[in-house]
């Protein structure tokens, strides 16, 4: 039985993580963390997640939430690096699903891994999305540069960042396959008289509305045909279950930084 703590336990993703941990046969919820001032601090994490009372109260103290954990899952914004430090201090493996980490935080996580930490860091924990990354890479290589690439992502109207971290990673996958540069070759939206589409360009488009969990489509288009690769998430459980697969992977992993491609054996 692996003891698992959840940081961001009262959020939409955190609640699904808590519920799925409680419902598993080989994992135990050992801690639930929220930020100071969160109105759910002190409440039973299982009850809040709709899984019934579990006796694990949400706390705003990371040292308390992470004590005794074999792994810590972090799906939250704010001082992520402080949470990673605390988890590593407690000898816990880390599953980090927070996107858009500052460069200096990513560098510190690399340094912690070099000293013995075990970390899965992924833009998206969904098994299907990680298969999409693989398929997009293969398509970009096989189809070649004659095929124009456009990426469309849609999320709920409360999402704060754009484009999504997953869409960014999809663009990076294409750039890696073609030897392009995200900074130079990705065009975020179009407006006005922009002229003919350059051949060396990846169009990036973000849609927001309703309660969409997450849709991503990569379009490869050339004269005469169009190839579209899509993933649509209808429940946050797809991300939660992927994160739990990462927890199980890290139980036997050597120190280092991994991604979901490693977890799923896609490399």
Provide a quick synopsis of the model.
The chain has about 270 residues and is an alpha/beta fold. It has ten helices and eleven strands. Helix 4 links the parallel strand 3 (about 70-75) and strand 4 (about 95).
Structure overview:
The structure is a single chain. With 267 residues, the chain is an alpha/beta fold. The protein has ten helices and eleven strands. The longest helix has 17 residues, at 127-143.
Widest sheet, order of strands? 2-1-3-4-5-11
Query: Tally of extended strands?
Result: 11
Alpha carbon gyration radius: 20 Å
Mean pLDDT: 94
Shape: elongated
Percentage of residues in helical conformation: 25-40%
Distance between the termini: 28 Å
Share of residues in strands? 15-25%
Task: Outline the fold blueprint.
Layout (H helix, E strand, L loop, with lengths): L1 E6 L4 H11 L4 E7 L11 H4 L13 H5 L4 E4 L5 H10 L3 E4 L6 H12 L3 E4 L5 H17 L4 E8 L9 H14 L3 H4 E3 L13 E7 L5 E9 L2 E9 L3 H14 L5 E3 L1 H4 L4
Helix pairs in contact: 1-9, 4-5, 6-7
Structural features:
267 residues, alpha/beta, elongated
